[in-house]
C-alpha cells in the first residue's frame, strides 16, 4: 500500500523535452506515463500538474519584452498542450484520465471544478490539472499547491532533475550539501529557490508536505509515493 493515499505530482514542462530542450519527446512522455501507471496500480489517487516551459516560459518571454500577462496566458495554453499529451500517453497504457483546465478550452479539456476533480479521483481516474491557476503572475508551482489543497492531497511531489534541495546550486558550488528534511520556515529564511514563495506559503498554511526528488531515476516516483526516503521533505 502507498504511504500517501492522494498525491499531487508536479512536473516541469522542460522535462518533457528531454535532451531536445524544446517540445515534447514521445519516449520521455511514455516513460513518465509508465511510472504514473505503476503508482496508480499501487493504489494511490493521483493528480498531476505540468508546466509549459518546454514550449514557452512566461517570465522569460516577459524579460525579453513581451507583455507579462500575455506571456503568462501563453504559458497556460502550453500547459494545456502538455496535459493533453500526457493524457494520450496514459490512455495508450490503459489508464483512464481526465484533463481539467482553468482556461475554458472545452474542445480538449473539461473546465476545472473542484468537486468534479475530487469525484474523478474517487472513481479511480488520473486527473491532469492544466492552465495553471487561470490567472497571470502565478506559476505552475503555485497552481500545484493550490490544487493539492483543494483536492485535500496528502503530499505535493515536486519532480526535478536533481536529487533534492541543496544549500546552493550543486552545478555551480561543489561544496553544496543536500538537505534530507527542512521546515517551511527554513526554506523562506534561506531563500531556497526550488519553489516560489506563494506555493510554499500555500503548503504551509494547509499542512501539505512537499517532497523534492529526482524523477530522472527510473522508479523514483513510485518509491516516493511508497514512503521511501528519497530526496528532501519539507514540512512542519
What is Rg? 17 Å
CATH class term: Alpha Beta
Largest sheet: 9 strands, mixed
DSSP E strands, number: 11
The first-to-last residue Cα distance is 24 Å
Q: How many structural domains?
A: 1
Order of helices and strands: EHHEHHEEHEHEEEEHHEHE
CATH topology category name: Carbamate kinase
Q: Estimate the helix proportion, in percent.
A: 25-40%
Describe this protein's structure.
The structure is a single chain. The protein is of the alpha/beta class and 236 residues long. The chain has one domain: Carbamate kinase (3-Layer(aba) Sandwich), CATH 3.40.1160. Helix content is 40%, strand content 19%. Strands 4-3-5-2-1-6-10-11-9 form a nine-stranded mixed sheet, with helices on both faces. Helix 2 crosses helix 4. 42% of the residues are buried.
Layout of secondary structure:
Blueprint: E1 6-11, H1 14-17, H2 26-41, E2 45-50, H3 58-63, H4 68-92, E3 97-101, E4 110-111, H5 114-122, E5 126-130, H6 140-150, E6 155-160, E7 165-166, E8 178-179, E9 181-183, H7 184-190, H8 197-205, E10 210-214, H9 220-226, E11 232-235
Parallel strand pairs: 1-2, 1-6, 2-5, 3-4, 3-5, 6-10, 9-11
Antiparallel strand pairs: 7-8, 10-11
Amino acid at each position: 500500500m502507498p504511504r500517501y493515499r492522494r498525491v499531487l505530482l508536479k512536473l516541469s514542462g522542460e522535462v518533457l523535452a528531454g535532451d531536445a530542450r524544446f517540445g515534447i519527446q514521445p519516449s520521455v512522455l511514455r516513460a513518465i506515463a509508465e511510472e504514473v501507471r505503476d503508482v496508480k496500480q499501487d493504489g494511490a489517487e493521483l493528480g498531476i500538474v505540468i508546466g509549459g516551459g518546454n514550449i514557452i516560459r512566461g517570465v522569460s518571454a516577459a524579460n525579453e519584452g513581451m507583455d507579462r500577462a500575455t506571456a503568462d496566458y501563453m504559458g497556460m495554453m502550453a500547459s494545456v498542450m502538455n496535459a493533453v499529451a500526457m493524457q494520450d500517453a496514459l490512455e495508450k497504457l490503459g489508464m483512464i484520465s481526465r484533463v481539467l483546465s482553468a482556461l475554458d478550452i472545452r474542445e480538449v479539456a473539461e473546465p476545472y471544478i473542484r468537486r468534479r476533480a475530487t469525484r474523478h479521483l474517487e472513481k479511480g481516474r488520473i486527473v491532469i490539472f492544466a492552465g495553471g491557476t487561470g490567472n497571470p503572475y502565478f506559476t505552475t508551482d503555485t497552481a500545484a499547491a493550490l490544487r493539492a489543497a483543494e483536492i485535500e492531497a496528502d503530499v505535493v511531489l515536486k519532480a526535478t532533475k536533481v536529487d533534492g534541495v541543496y544549500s546552493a546550486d550543486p552545478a555551480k558550488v561543489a561544496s553544496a550539501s543536500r538537505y534530507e528534511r527542512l521546515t517551511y520556515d527554513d526554506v523562506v529564511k534561506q531563500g531556497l529557490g526550488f519553489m516560489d514563495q506563494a506555493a510554499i506559503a500555500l503548503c504551509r498554511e494547509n499542512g501539505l508536505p512537499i517532497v523534492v526528488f529526482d524523477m530522472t531515476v527510473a522508479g523514483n516516483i513510485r518509491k516516493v509515493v511508497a514512503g521511501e526516503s528519497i530526496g528532501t521533505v519539507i514540512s512542519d
